[in-house]
Write a structure and sequence with these properties.
single chain, mainly alpha, 76% helix, elongated
């Protein structure tokens, strides 16, 4: 447990924020799938569908945050998927 806590504090703040956004978004989507979509109960409101869409956007935003933190650690100015030739332009 101590190793997990230490690895969390070693990460940059941007990376921790990204992972926090991802974990919260995935947790809500899993809750929605299990408790609302696949369970018998009242009709799902537009508000809940809106929250699911926002959480999907949260996963995307958190992933971008984690990737940008990795780029910052490497001191790159181009995305990691771009080749070195495109980065020089």
């Amino acid at each position: 447990m101590r190793a997990l806590i230490d690895s969390w504090h070693v990460m940059s703040r941007q990376r921790r924020t990204g992972w926090t956004i991802i974990v919260i978004s995935v947790a809500y989507i899993l809750y929605f799938l299990k408790a609302r979509l696949f369970a018998i109960g009242p009709e799902i409101s537009r508000k809940e569908w809106f929250y699911v869409i926002v959480m999907l956007g949260g996963i995307i935003l958190g992933t971008i945050n984690v990737r940008m933190a990795e780029m910052r650690e490497r001191n790159q100015k181009a995305m990691p998927l771009v080749g070195k030739e495109a980065a020089k332009k």
